[in-house]
């Protein structure tokens, strides 16, 4: 399917009288897209976000729309992904510049970078909110991909859908565009499902306590099930970390259901290689416990301290000491301390336990209201309204979600590529 096919179409359009659309600032993108039935799934995704109102005040735009026939995973996208992350991916399909078909044919073979609406959210790292558009000089095939080096995903321009010079162009493209996927998609190995986590931990020697706790609690089956999805990242405390817990410590005396929440607190619901964790801009990460207990609770603060990766729970500061497994979709890292969530443990009583030796179990656990969903921080599984919140407010959570989304998308894309 070469780009030249769209030219006759463009000429026809150009010969037609100007489409009766009022002022440039009054473009209703939803209405324009809705006129094209073959784009209904993409249009539904886009109009489910704040993007139409973002765009209402802009005049020079190009939209890369994915036709229904190229968007078979749309149902999966909307059911698996929080609305705010989906919105950022859709924003990546909107270029803040008017490009006519002729403009595309002038793009140099070496490519040009174009800023997308996603870049304006402040959630894109470096220039990964841009797309690199290249043209094959031999067949004029125009491709769009992330400027991230080695990004394996790209979309091809299929044709012109509609153009309103010099305000809005809509082109159809062969695939969803995934922003900055390089860190996550660099691995070309197919996801290895069926890794036995218990066995991997026992083989790691220093993780017998956590291995038996995971097996006993049954959560390992849940984790194992996640291998098939976006993958998982586990932080496993060393045997020493468990032996250093205060002997009167309340972790051992927690009821089984809370113990299993603490174990889930050690797991991120996506596969993150070490380099990706190290380069995280926004440290607060939701965990599997967040999913169980409610948005904003049970987050881990992952950052670099003294040049190595550290995990701050607000109660303990643990460091990542080793990589046990890094096999997409499973990453397992050894950590120096048991990650005690502040929702169950009180810093003051932990400190006083360690200094005075008083029984930590005497410290009251916070009531469940403190862990109820929707309380403090925004983001994870958040309301659609977060989509429109300005950068900075919910940046951390949104960034996390975007990364999760990218992983999800990559898995879906991988599925179709294979
Ligand atoms: C397109 O934008 C120009 C300004 O660049 C404006 O004068 C014109 O009315 C707009 N056309 C349409 C159809 O909106
Ligand atoms: C844009 O068009 C859609 C569908 O035609 C309509 O539902 C929506 O109200 C319009 N929005 C504005 C701001 O006019
Ligand atoms: C765009 O992609 C082309 C082809 O992969 C590459 O040669 C070029 O360096 C890229 N440009 C940028 C700015 O990333
Ligand atoms: C786009 O991806 C396809 C398959 O994934 C690949 O064959 C093709 O070379 C890529 N094109 C560019 C310009 O990277
Ligand atoms: C995983 O490995 C452990 C220890 O070797 C074993 O007991 C368990 O049955 C294995 N689980 C599965 C599902 O193979
Ligand atoms: C995360 O932890 C680092 C290092 O302990 C700390 O400097 C930073 O303030 C923490 N951030 C949040 C949001 O808690
Ligand atoms: C970081 O280094 C400083 C100075 O060497 C030290 O006091 C501090 O404990 C270190 N922090 C961690 C988390 O290792």
From TrEMBL:
Q: Name one GO cellular component term.
A: side of membrane
Q: What is its main location?
A: membrane
Q: Which UniProt keywords apply?
A: Cell membrane, Glycoprotein, GPI-anchor, Lipoprotein, Membrane, Proteoglycan, Signal
- Keyword Lipoprotein assigned: yes
Residues of the signal sequence?
A: 1-23
Show the Gene3D superfamilies listed in the entry. FAS1 domain
SUPFAM superfamilies for this protein: FAS1 domain
The protein's topology relative to the membrane is: Lipid-anchor; GPI-anchor
Low complexity compositional bias, start-end: 352-363
Annotated protein name in UniProt: FAS1 domain-containing protein
Natural source organism: Trapa incisa
């Amino acid at each position: 399917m070469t780009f030249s096919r769209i030219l006759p179409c463009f000429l026809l359009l150009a010969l037609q009288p100007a489409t009766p659309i009022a002022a440039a600032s009054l473009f209703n993108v939803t209405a324009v897209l809705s006129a094209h039935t073959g784009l209904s799934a993409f249009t539904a995704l886009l109009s489910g976000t704040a993007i139409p109102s973002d765009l209402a005040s802009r005049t020079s735009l190009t939209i890369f729309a994915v036709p229904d026939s190229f968007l078979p995973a749309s149902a999966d996208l909307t059911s698996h992904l929080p609305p705010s992350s989906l919105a950022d991916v859709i924003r990546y399909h909107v270029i803040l510049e008017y490009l006519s078909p002729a403009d595309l044919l002038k793009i140099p073979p070496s490519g040009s970078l174009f800023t997308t609406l996603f870049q304006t959210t402040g959630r894109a790292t470096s220039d990964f909110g841009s797309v690199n558009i290249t043209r094959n000089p031999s067949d004029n095939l125009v491709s769009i991909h992330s400027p991230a080096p080695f990004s394996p995903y790209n979309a091809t321009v299929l044709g012109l859908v509609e153009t309103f010079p010099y305000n809005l162009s809509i082109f159809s493209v062969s695939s969803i565009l995934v922003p900055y996927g390089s860190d996550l998609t660099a691995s070309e190995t197919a996801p290895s499902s069926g890794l036995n986590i218990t066995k991997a931990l026992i083989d790691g020697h220093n993780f017998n306590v956590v291995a038996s706790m995971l097996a006993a609690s049954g959560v390992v089956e849940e984790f194992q099930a996640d291998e098939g999805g976006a993958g998982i990242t586990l932080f496993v405390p060393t045997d020493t970390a468990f032996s250093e817990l205060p002997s009167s410590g309340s972790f051992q005396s927690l009821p089984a259901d809370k113990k299993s929440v603490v174990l889930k607190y050690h797991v991120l619901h996506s596969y993150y290689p070490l380099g990706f964790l190290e380069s995280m801009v926004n440290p607060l990460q939701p965990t599997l416990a967040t999913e169980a207990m409610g948005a904003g609770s049970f987050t881990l603060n992952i950052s670099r301290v003294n040049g190595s990766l550290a995990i701050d729970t607000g109660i303990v500061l643990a460091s990542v000491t080793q990589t046990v497994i890094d096999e997409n979709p499973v990453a397992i890292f050894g950590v120096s301390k048991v990650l005690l969530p502040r929702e169950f443990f009180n810093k003051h009583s932990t400190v006083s336990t360690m200094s005075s030796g008083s029984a930590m179990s005497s410290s009251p656990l916070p009531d469940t209201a403190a862990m109820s969903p929707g309380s403090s921080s925004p983001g994870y599984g958040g309301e659609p309204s977060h989509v429109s919140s300005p950068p900075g407010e919910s940046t951390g959570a949104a960034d996390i979600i975007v990364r999760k989304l990218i992983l999800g998308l990559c898995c879906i894309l991988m599925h179709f590529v294979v």
